[in-house]
Write a structure and sequence with these properties.
heterodimer; A: mainly beta; 4-stranded antiparallel beta sheet; B: mainly beta; 5-stranded mixed beta sheet; globular
Amino acid sequence: DGGITQSPKYLFRKEGQNVTLSCEQNLNHDAMYWYRQDPGQGLRLIYYSQIVNDFQKGDIAEGYSVSREKKESFPLTVTSAQKNPTAFYLCASSISEYNEQFFGPGTRLTVL
Amino acid sequence: LAKTTQPISMDSYEGQEVNITCSHNNIATNDYITWYQQFPSQGPRFIIQGYKTKVTNEVASLFIPADRKSSTLSLPRVSLSDTAVYYCLVESGNTPLVFGKGTRLSVIA
C-alpha cells in the first residue's frame, strides 16, 4: 500500500525546544516538500528536495532545518529560532519536481 | 512566476454546477494550470491540470481560453462532500508550486 506518512498527527512542545517531524514515502518519488499552513491561510513552502543529499530553501526556511539522507525520508526540524512555530505542517512528494504532489495527513504542532 | 487571483469564498446549493475562476495574467508559454482540493485538517489533493482549451476527468472540468490568462474549474452537481478549499496554481518549469489562499467553497443542503 503506497503512500506518504507523517507522524505524529498531533505534537506538543514547550517553547525553546527543538522538535523533529517525520515524513516517509514509499512511492519511490524523487522530490519531497515541507509546507506550513496557518489557520485560514494557504500553504507556504519551507524546504524542498529534488534528490537525496540535496535540498533548497523555500519561502519561509528561517528557523527550520531538513535532511535528505534517504530517498524515502525527509524529516523537518523546527528549531527554537522559529518565532511562531505553532501550525499545521504538511509533507508532500512527487515523481519529480514538476509533477503532481501527493500529500501526507499532516502534523499539527502546538508550542506551549 | 505567474501570480494567481481567485475568489476568497463561494456558496452553492447541492446539485448545482459550480464554476471557480482564476486569473493568471502573466502566465508564461510553458506554464501549466493545476487545481488542488483541500478538506479541513488534510493535505491538498490534485484535481485536474491543463494547458489550453478544455480538460475533463471524473471529478471536474477545466476550461482555459485561448489567451490562457484565466481558467475556470467546473464542478458538476456538487454535493455536501465537495465543501473544501480549492487552489489554482500555475506550474512553471523551474520553480516549486505556490499555493495561495484558495477559494473556500461551501455547499449548502
